Amino acid sequence: MKGLKGMIALAGTLFLLLAFSACSGSSGDSRAEKDETNDSDKAEKAEITLWTYPVGGWGNSATRSALLAAFHREYPDISISVKELTYDTGDSEVEEALKSGNAPDLILEGPERLVANWGARGVMADLKDLWEEETAGKIYDSVKVACHDGEDHYYIYPLCMSTHCMAVNRDLFEAAGAWQYIDEETHTWTTDGFIAAAAALRDYGVEHVAAVYCGGQGGDQGTRALINNLYSGTFTDPEHTRYTVNSPENIRALELLTGMEGISFDPALVGADEAEKFCNGELAMAFCWNVFMEISQTISNENLDFDVFPMAFPTDDGEVNLQGGIWGFGIFDNQDEKRVEAAKTFIRFMTGDDGQYTRAVLASTYWPVRDIPDIYVNDKLMMEYSVFQQYLGDYYQVTPGWATARTAWWNMLQRVGEGEDAAQAVAEFEEEANAAAAAKDS
Length: 442
Description:
Strand order of the largest sheet: 2-1-3-10-4-11
């Protein structure tokens, strides 16, 4: 486990998770958590399903059951069955459910799936009526932009948000003399500082400084942010109509990484694997990181015996642009209006009243999408990670052809790692990604 300092920082967050678990009562397995329904005048009797990706604590059955229990006390005639998805198999499970006509009613994920993928394909219910209600007016404008398809259709109602970052082994950095290249107050560093730190670690005897994981799309927000930030490159245009990876800035970043000793391109790893290696002390830094990963790894990883220091990605110009995560509820259009209305009732319950909304956000261990003052004021760990919210960059994951672009990205990284010329690799990536974007627009 981490040292005393880290454990003190985690105390508030761990208490929160335990509190949710303690008040949850019994919970079902990953396939179904059902509450008995009773007569009620508040809503029509309905049975709906909720499939949830592991969005913070919402991926934990005990934490989630406490929230569902509160909902069922208010709406006993709406029964909810829950299925937990993973990022390894979740997409294929949803696709199979769509093919067989058994799609869930509710799903908890982000705009890249709910808007740019399933919404664009016409299988999601439009939630515009929810967005016309008073509470929706409080949602940050930057979040609103990511929640519609550009044609005034809304396929997600947001719950929480976060900013992805990277992390370093502070103990190792200090021992190797690499800590001098980090601004501890702002959690930032320059590209030159990153290069110097990696060299210092190598001189200290660290064989594996970092890994550019490229075994799949899991955690790919980390590799995109790393490469885009190193020399101020971009991934898409500001209007989110096309991909702009084929640039001198991104090519230079790839060439830098392939030439750095101690940094490998590893096709055997996805983001979660890389984070695990980092926590086991096998890597000096992780490019796939966020606050929930620190919480979960500190709880579960007995090999984690160093101080994790979260960092922004290195930049050449001081302008950090981190990848954000937005998560919320979507409703699959199963041609059953009663179930659609029941699902909307669930969304209104979880996001309407400030008190219940705060509990739903705290369960996620992320941040609210509207102004809820001092939500983590007594939690040292969450306050430490709140510094990254100011570095939130463009949410470009709603660009057409996104699913194709994600696959093309890690395939491109594999080819670069195998020795293909970086300029050729990004040109091939951009051609494939923009062809998919054009097909979506046609």
